[in-house]
C-alpha cells in the first residue's frame, strides 16, 4: 500500500499539517490482505490507563477525533482505543494537552494509546478545523493509510472567548471566532469526511453484535444483519446549550451549538440513504479547561452544582462512554438524535 507522506500546508492561521508516526506495525485490514506500515517512532512513555479492554465494541474501526489533545476529545480518543479501535487519529492544533489545571499527565494522547495498546495504532495530525485545506489533507492522509474512515467525532470547539458579555457588548471578532470554530469547523470536517464515507462499502456487523446474536427467547425473525451495515458514523459534539440557554451572556456559544445540533439533524436525513448515521452529543457542565472559570471559583462551582439535579459536575468519562456507544453497533439504527448527558439539568 502507499505510505502516508509527511508534509506541510500553509494557512492564514500559520498552522502546519503534520503527521506523527508509529513504530513498524503489521495489522489485518481485511481477511485476505495484510498491510505493513512504516512509522516514525514517537516518544514512548509507559502510562497505566484504561486497563479494562473491550475489543469487540469498536473492533476494526478507523476513527478521527478532533480536539483530541485535551478535555473531552482526549477522553473520547482514549476510550475508543480501550474499546478496540483499529486506528485513532488524534487531530488538534498541538500534540500536548493544554495547561488548564485539569490534565495532570502532559503525555500526548496518541502516545498514551500507543504505549498502552502496543498492538493498536494511533496517529497525531496537526489540523486547524477552520482551514479547509488542512481538513481535506487530513482526510486524504487517513484514507491513504487505511482506505476508509468509519467514525468521525467533531469535538474541537471554543467556549466564550471574552467572558460573558451581553450581545450589545460582545465584540464582533469574538462572535465570529466562536462561530468559526464551533460551527464552520463542524461543517468542514463533515463535508470532507462524508464525501469519503459515501464511497465506502458498508461495513458488516461483527459476530459480537447484539443484532446478529439476539438473546435466547427473543424471536426477531430470520437473521438479517445487513440492514444495519453502515458506511460510517458521525458524532458532532454540541451541548445542552444547543437547545436551552443560560442567563450568563453565552449568546455566541449557544448560537454555535444550536447550529451544530440542527446541522446534525439535517445531515442525518440527507445521508440515511447512504447508511451513514449522524448523531450529536450534548454534554452538560463538565470539569474541563473550557469551564475552568466556573469550577475554579468556589462560590460559582457551588452554585452550578445546585443547578444540576444530580448535584455534581459531569466528568469527561461520562460523555466519552456515550460516544463509544454511538460509534458502536449498539447505535446502528439510531440517527438524527441529540443525546443529552447533563445530570438532569435540561430536564428541569
UniProtKB/TrEMBL annotation:
* InterPro entries cross-referenced by the UniProt entry: NAD(P)-bd_dom_sf, SDR_fam
GO molecular-function term, one example from the UniProt record: oxidoreductase activity, acting on the CH-OH group of donors, NAD or NADP as acceptor
Q: Which Pfam families match?
A: adh_short, adh_short_C2
Q: Where is this region: Disordered?
A: 206-225
Q: Which domain of life is it from?
A: Eukaryota
The family assignment reads: Belongs to the short-chain dehydrogenases/reductases (SDR) family.
* Name the UniProt record assigns to this protein: Uncharacterized protein
Q: What is the species listed in this Swiss-Prot or TrEMBL entry?
A: Knufia fluminis
Amino acid at each position: 500500500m502507499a505510505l502516508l507522506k509527511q508534509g506541510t500546508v500553509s494557512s492564514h492561521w500559520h498552522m502546519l499539517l503534520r503527521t506523527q508516526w508509529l513504530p513498524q506495525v503489521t495489522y489485518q485490514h481485511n481477511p485476505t490482505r495484510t498491510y505493513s506500515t512504516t512509522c516514525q517512532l514517537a516518544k514512548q512513555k509507559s502510562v497505566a490507563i484504561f486497563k479494562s479492554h473491550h475489543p469487540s465494541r469498536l473492533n476494526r474501526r478507523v476513527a478521527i477525533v478532533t480536539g483530541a489533545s485535551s478535555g473531552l476529545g482526549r477522553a473520547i480518543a482514549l476510550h475508543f482505543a480501550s474499546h478496540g479501535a483499529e486506528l485513532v487519529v488524534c487531530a488538534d492544533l498541538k500534540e500536548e494537552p493544554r495547561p488548564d489545571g485539569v490534565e495532570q499527565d502532559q503525555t500526548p494522547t496518541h502516545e498514551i494509546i500507543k504505549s498502552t495498546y502496543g498492538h493498536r495504532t494511533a496517529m497525531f495530525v496537526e489540523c486547524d478545523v477552520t482551514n479547509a485545506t488542512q481538513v481535506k489533507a487530513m482526510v486524504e492522509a487517513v484514507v491513504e493509510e487505511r482506505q476508509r474512515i468509519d467514525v468521525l467525532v467533531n469535538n474541537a470547539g471554543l467556549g466564550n472567548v471574552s467572558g460573558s458579555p451581553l450581545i450589545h457588548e460582545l465584540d464582533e471578532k469574538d462572535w465570529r471566532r466562536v462561530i468559526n470554530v464551533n460551527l464552520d469547523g463542524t461543517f468542514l470536517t463533515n463535508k470532507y469526511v462524508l464525501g469519503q464515507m459515501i464511497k465506502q462499502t458498508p461495513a458488516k456487523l461483527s459476530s459480537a453484535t447484539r443484532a446478529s446474536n439476539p438473546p435466547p427467547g427473543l424471536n426477531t425473525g430470520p437473521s438479517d444483519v445487513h440492514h444495519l451495515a453502515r458506511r460510517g458514523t458521525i458524532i458532532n459534539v454540541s451541548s445542552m446549550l444547543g437547545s436551552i440557554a443560560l442567563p450568563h451572556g453565552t449568546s455566541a456559544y449557544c448560537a454555535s451549538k444550536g447550529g451544530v445540533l440542527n446541522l446534525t439533524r439535517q445531515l442525518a436525513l440527507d445521508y440515511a440513504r447512504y447508511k451513514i448515521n449522524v448523531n450529536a452529543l450534548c454534554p452538560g457542565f463538565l470539569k474541563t479547561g473550557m469551564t475552568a472559570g466556573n469550577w475554579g471559583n468556589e462560590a460559582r462551582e457551588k452554585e452550578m452544582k445546585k443547578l444540576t439535579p444530580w448535584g455534581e459536575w459531569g466528568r469527561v468519562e461520562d460523555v466519552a462512554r456515550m460516544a463509544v456507544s454511538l460509534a458502536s453497533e449498539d447505535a446502528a439504527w439510531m440517527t438524527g438524535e441529540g443525546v443529552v448527558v447533563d445530570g438532569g439539568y435540561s430536564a428541569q
